[in-house]
């Protein structure tokens, strides 16, 4: 019944998409992941819906930005108000941007103003690997993880090497990247650093007729820096530090500026310090401190937020006679300041918040079955205490097959913008609370082939959504129900990857008379996915990916048509160290919108030279 209602009235391509296995853009999944349990674990032992985008896949995808890379992953939809550097949002498994938590090297990177991570500010050149956990994860990560968690790992110096890239393309786009990694003579110390510079003249971001339309090109430029250091002590303990920073400027269009003043300058940073080791044979521990900041300034008017988030995490894992026990304690302090925030005619009523958290998880494996129980409590200033829990079960039906099921609760505290913004805050908002469940069957073959089918449902009480005047309101509830399919297979010398998500994302709004209206949630499609193929022969490699997105509605009810776009990439290995590469983006020059009134890039061409050696 779900599928018949879902497919009714769709465009022909959507009907075809329902019949296709569609791409998890991750190469062969690594044996070990971190995000599923906050500790290194074999991916085959995890009880969550997790995908990995590794460094090889990032390189061969040829994406020019982080949002562009993520849109090919299962369960993820992306919105952008234009091209590179434009305001972006990530919708993970039917939830909105602020309901997906983003981490960088284990540290929350979160804009306390709006709750998102401002992915458009992060330089893709600095990223080594991305892990994506879909489904409620607050019992492990706290506020914001209603839809899941995206963890970004910066480049690390696992092997001594030097890398560089230079490229140019359409819209006067240029990219320069360089970096190195080194290890000490005794192998106990590793040091690495990378830098990048990206520029583009851009294109006209808004459409004629839009109230924000300005007849100009909206460009972007950014400088990025990543660095890190690890050192292993004689005792076996390991100390580490990592830094990711970016500084940029982007042009935009709006009704309150002129082409010469519609510019936004930004700075984003994430610093992580860690120490981990074995206290006893049965007890391992890790302490991690971090500081993140997302600052930006509008040239056209006085609004220049400066945000600061400080976190301290203590993680412990103990092997018990029966199973394993994980214990953790976490504190996050958030502060906002700047013109129009703490200064000016209408400052925010509150500019700081502290969260104290404690969590525990017990996991046991017996006779092919695995059980994991998690509990957590977050005490948030001005919000109160929020307990969450999760239970997951898995059964290894055969060496390559697993059947699993899980249930979890989650929550999201209203942000500073939600509560206190002078441009439409609502101090009466309540925290969002959700209950989610999923069931899955997955196959992981010894040759790298895999298939995963997941059915999921998530009910969010007091979901916070914008009304027609862009004021946040609590809905009676929101519901997301659906299924996702991921597959990877090698046929005829070609590596095929596919993903498809079918979902219903609906909200229930109650009027003053008590009548309940059911409506689609903004910017979420009923069907989306992609199909990818990679082929290599000698020095030549080629890739193609087809991204499919169903129709959506925007915040004020505007209809956003479905679309399909094709990206093509190729590379020629000139030598073991040098590669010539190229990318044709949106090869069919499809015109489409992810946000009403805003254009997305047309056909683009980018080519360059990459070096990687010792």
Going by helix content, strand content and strand pairing, the class is mainly beta
The rounded Rg comes to: 23 Å
Tally the beta strands: 36
The DSSP helix count reads: 6
Characterize the main sheet: 22 strands, antiparallel, barrel
| Count of structural domains | 1
The CATH class label is Mainly Beta
Known CATH architecture = Beta Barrel
CATH topology type: Maltoporin, Chain A
Sum up the overall morphology in one term.
globular
As a percent range, the share of helical residues equals: under 10%
**What is the residue-averaged pLDDT?**
91
Strand content: over 45%
Q: Kindly report the name of the CATH homologous superfamily.
A: TonB-dependent receptor, beta-barrel domain
Q: End-to-end distance, in Å? A: 58 Å
Uncertain runs are: 1-30
Walk me through the structure.
- This protein has about 625 residues and is mainly beta.
- The protein has a single domain, classed as Maltoporin, Chain A.
- It contains 6 helices and 36 strands.
- The chain has a 22-stranded antiparallel beta barrel.
- The chain is globular.
- It starts with a helix and ends with a strand.
């Amino acid at each position: 019944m779900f599928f018949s209602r879902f497919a009714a009235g769709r465009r022909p391509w959507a009907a075809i998409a329902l019949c296709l296995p569609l791409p998890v853009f991750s190469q062969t999944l690594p044996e070990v992941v971190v995000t599923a349990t906050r500790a290194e674990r074999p991916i085959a032992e995890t009880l969550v819906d997790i995908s990995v985008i590794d460094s090889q896949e990032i390189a061969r995808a040829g994406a020019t930005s982080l949002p562009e890379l993520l849109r090919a992953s299962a369960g993820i939809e992306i919105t952008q108000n234009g091209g590179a550097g434009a305001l972006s949002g990530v919708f993970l498994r039917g939830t909105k941007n602020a309901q997906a938590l983003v981490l960088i090297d284990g540290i929350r990177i979160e804009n306390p103003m709006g709750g998102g991570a401002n992915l458009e500010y992060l330089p893709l050149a600095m990223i080594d690997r991305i892990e994506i956990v879909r489904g409620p994860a607050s019992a492990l990560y706290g506020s914001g993880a209603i839809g899941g968690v995206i963890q970004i790992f910066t480049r690390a110096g696992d092997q001594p090497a030097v890398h560089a890239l230079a490229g140019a393309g359409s819209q006067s786009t240029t990219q320069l990247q360089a970096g190195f990694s080194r290890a000490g003579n005794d192998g106990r110390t590793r040091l690495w650093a990378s830098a990048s510079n990206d520029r583009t003249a851009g294109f006209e971001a808004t459409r004629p007729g839009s109230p924000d339309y300005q007849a100009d090109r909206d460009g972007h430029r950014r400088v990025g820096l990543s660095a890190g250091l690890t050192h292993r002590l004689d005792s076996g303990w390991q100390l580490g530090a990592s830094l990711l920073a970016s500084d940029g400027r982007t042009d935009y269009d709006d009704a309150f500026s002129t082409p010469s003043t519609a510019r936004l300058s930004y700075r984003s940073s994430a610093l992580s310090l860690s120490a981990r080791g074995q206290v006893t044979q049965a007890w391992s521990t890790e302490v991690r401190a971090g500081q993140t900041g997302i600052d930006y300034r509008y040239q056209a008017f006085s609004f220049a937020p400066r945000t600061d988030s400080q976190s301290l995490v203590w993680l412990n894992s103990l092997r018990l006679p029966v199973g394993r026990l994980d214990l953790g304690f976490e504190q996050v302090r958030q502060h906002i300041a700047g013109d129009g925030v703490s200064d000016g005619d209408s400052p925010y009523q509150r500019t700081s918040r502290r969260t104290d958290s404690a969590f525990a998880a017990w996991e046991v494996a017996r006779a092919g079955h695995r059980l994991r129980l998690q509990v957590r409590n977050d005490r948030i200033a001005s919000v109160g205490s929020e307990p969450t829990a999760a239970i997951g079960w898995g059964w290894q039906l055969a060496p390559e097959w697993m059947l699993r099921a899980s249930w979890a609760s989650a929550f999201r505290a209203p942000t500073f913008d939600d509560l206190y913004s002078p441009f439409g805050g609502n101090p009466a908002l309540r925290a969002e609370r959700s209950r989610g469940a999923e069931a899955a069957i997955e196959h992981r073959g010894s040759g790298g082939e895999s298939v995963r089918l997941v059915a999921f449902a998530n009910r969010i009480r007091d979901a916070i959504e914008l009304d027609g005047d862009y004021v946040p309101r609590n809905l009676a509830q929101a519901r997301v129900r659906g299924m996702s399919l991921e597959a990877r297979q090698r046929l005829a010398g070609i590596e095929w990857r596919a993903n498809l998500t079918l979902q219903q994302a609906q909200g229930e709004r109650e009027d003053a008379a008590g009548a309940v209206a059911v409506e689609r949630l903004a910017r979420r499609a009923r069907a989306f996915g992609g199909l990818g193929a990679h082929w290599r022969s000698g020095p030549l490699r080629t890739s193609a990916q087809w991204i499919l997105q169903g129709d959506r509605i925007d915040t004020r009810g505007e209809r956003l048509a479905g679309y399909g776009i094709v990206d093509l990439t190729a590379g020629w290995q000139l030598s073991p160290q040098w590669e010539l590469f190229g990318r044709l983006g949106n090869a069919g020059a499809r015109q489409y919108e992810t946000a009403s009134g805003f254009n997305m890039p047309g056909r683009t061409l980018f080519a360059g030279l990459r070096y990687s050696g010792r």
